[in-house]
Amino acid sequence: MPAARPARIPNQRDGAEDAAAGTTVDHLTETYRKHYRSLLGLAALLLDDTASCEDVVQEAFIRVHSARKRVRDPEKTLAYLRQTVVNLSRSALRRRILGLKLLSKPMPDMASAEEGAYDLLERDSLIKAMKGLQRRQREVLVLRYFADMTEAQAAETLGISLGSVKAYGSRGIAALRVAMEAPA
């Protein structure tokens, strides 16, 4: 039976060689153990389903493992992984959006003449009710609900306080309800 070889004791020179060689597999494995969940959480903030998040994080580790010799400083491994997770998440979202655009869109159901007329009457009564509002109420409602602005954006656009936007909006909606429920 051959004699067991003694364990190799690393010296300072070996550490320099490891740094030049890049991130080691052991360091990457340890990074996986320590940071997998936090990277999964990062992906979850960018994507909407668990399976995609897990795929992105796994792919990030695979890519960093493949490029580990280029990661000169092992302390930057986590930063590389985070950036890779973000980039892969962006790519996944782009693919989804492109896929949705390329899917053939079904023809919308054609509304009956009666429904079209009813919609037109509702729209006309809404426009009439909007014209009956105070100027500021109308401006706030148009910016908030038709221009899809936040309260802060509407306040900045109109040059009024956030509280004023809330007050004009609340009063405007109340006045619209009354006007829309009143018989014509």
Automatic annotation (TrEMBL):
<protein>
    <submittedName>
        <fullName>SigE family RNA polymerase sigma factor</fullName>
    </submittedName>
</protein>
<keyword id="KW-0804">Transcription</keyword>
<keyword id="KW-0731">Sigma factor</keyword>
<dbReference type="InterPro" id="IPR013325">
    <property type="entry name" value="RNA_pol_sigma_r2"/>
</dbReference>
<dbReference type="InterPro" id="IPR013249">
    <property type="entry name" value="RNA_pol_sigma70_r4_t2"/>
</dbReference>
<dbReference type="InterPro" id="IPR014325">
    <property type="entry name" value="RNA_pol_sigma-E_actinobac"/>
</dbReference>
<dbReference type="InterPro" id="IPR007627">
    <property type="entry name" value="RNA_pol_sigma70_r2"/>
</dbReference>
<feature type="domain" description="RNA polymerase sigma-70 region 2">
    <location>
        <begin position="32"/>
        <end position="96"/>
    </location>
</feature>
<feature type="region of interest" description="Disordered">
    <location>
        <begin position="1"/>
        <end position="22"/>
    </location>
</feature>
<dbReference type="InterPro" id="IPR036388">
    <property type="entry name" value="WH-like_DNA-bd_sf"/>
</dbReference>
<keyword id="KW-0805">Transcription regulation</keyword>
<dbReference type="Pfam" id="PF08281">
    <property type="entry name" value="Sigma70_r4_2"/>
</dbReference>
<feature type="domain" description="RNA polymerase sigma factor 70 region 4 type 2">
    <location>
        <begin position="124"/>
        <end position="176"/>
    </location>
</feature>
<dbReference type="Pfam" id="PF04542">
    <property type="entry name" value="Sigma70_r2"/>
</dbReference>
<dbReference type="InterPro" id="IPR014284">
    <property type="entry name" value="RNA_pol_sigma-70_dom"/>
</dbReference>
<dbReference type="InterPro" id="IPR039425">
    <property type="entry name" value="RNA_pol_sigma-70-like"/>
</dbReference>
<comment type="similarity">
    <text>Belongs to the sigma-70 factor family. ECF subfamily.</text>
</comment>
<dbReference type="InterPro" id="IPR013324">
    <property type="entry name" value="RNA_pol_sigma_r3/r4-like"/>
</dbReference>
<keyword id="KW-0238">DNA-binding</keyword>
